[in-house]
Amino acid sequence: MARIEIKHLRTLVALRDCGSLVDAAQQVHLTQSALSHQLKELEDRLNQPVVIRKSKPLKFTETGSRLLQLADTVLPAVEQTEQDISMLALGKQGRLHIAIECHSCFDWLMPTLDEYREHWPDVEIDLISGFNFDPLPALARAELDLVITSDPQSLSGVRYIPLFQYECLLCVAKDHPLAKKELITPQDLSNETLIIYPVEQARLDIFKYFLLPANVLPKVTRSAELTIMIIQLVASGRGVCALPNWGIVDYLEKGYVLARSLGESGVWSTLYAAVREEQADAPYIEEFINTARSCSQQTLKGIQPPE
């Protein structure tokens, strides 16, 4: 059995604050007899006194003073943790560590975070890029709380909640030969330089849903980290790229590049919020997903609601 318990520390603080056994007993909701018994129990465990008997106001021994220092350190932390746990039980507080696999997601995610923080200020939010590591296994290990992804993996205990659907469009320079075509076929890209994000090819929509099923590969691939860098390369005739329709609206409106659908039906994909099953119904998680859906529908052009 531990020699010092939280109840002992609370009793000593009450004795210091009140100066007598009678008043201290009322503060900690004990009878005077029960408080005296608790004090004797502590002294027996420590094998030394903690208060000086018959002193008025009550005084503490050196051991008692040291225990009060401990109480002043420990009790506020205990009380704060108890409050935090109560808030968690009510769904008002929690941790939301988010990783993003979508390179263009920052455009709509930042307004989502701004709105969410207004209503859920006690949720601890941390935002990291998932470009240089695989965040979904980290989610399953509880190192993350939510992952924005268009490439769901079959992982035990992970739930994928759809946010919206979007079309992947091919971007070309205004004077590129493919600009004359209304629809692009996989074979059209067999002699092209395809500019992509630095992500495994099989995880990119244009490969996963368009090129690989047709057993076609581009002549050359090169990568760039930022969307604006990719668009600049395309606009200067260095290659073509495939990007989400909502992520290129500004570049199309300013006439930097042109966009064409991939195939007759286009290549459509879904963006998901991945969460762990045990957290999926937590109010602060549900509200973040609802806010993300609402903000994306309000701010993004060309997307559709999830099926």
Would you give an account of this structure?
This protein has 307 residues and is an alpha/beta fold. The chain folds into 3 domains: 6-89, Orthogonal Bundle (Arc Repressor Mutant, subunit A); 94-164 and 269-299, Periplasmic binding protein-like II (D-Maltodextrin-Binding Protein, domain 2, 3-Layer(aba) Sandwich), CATH 3.40.190.10; 166-268, Periplasmic binding protein-like II (D-Maltodextrin-Binding Protein, domain 2, 3-Layer(aba) Sandwich), CATH 3.40.190.10. Helix content is 39%, strand content 22%. The chain has helices spanning 6-18, 21-27, 32-46, 62-89, 106-119, 135-140, 205-211, 227-235, 249-253, 283-299, and strands at residues 51-52, 59-60, 94-100, 123-129, 146-149, 158-172, 183-184, 193-196, 220-223, 240-244, 258-262, 267-276. The strands form 2 sheets. Strands 3, 4, 5, 6, 7, 8, 9, 10, 11 and 12 form a 10-stranded mixed sheet that branches. α7 (205-211) links the parallel β8 (193-196) and β9. It is rod-shaped and about 100 Å long. The relative contact order is 0.14. The mean pLDDT is 88.
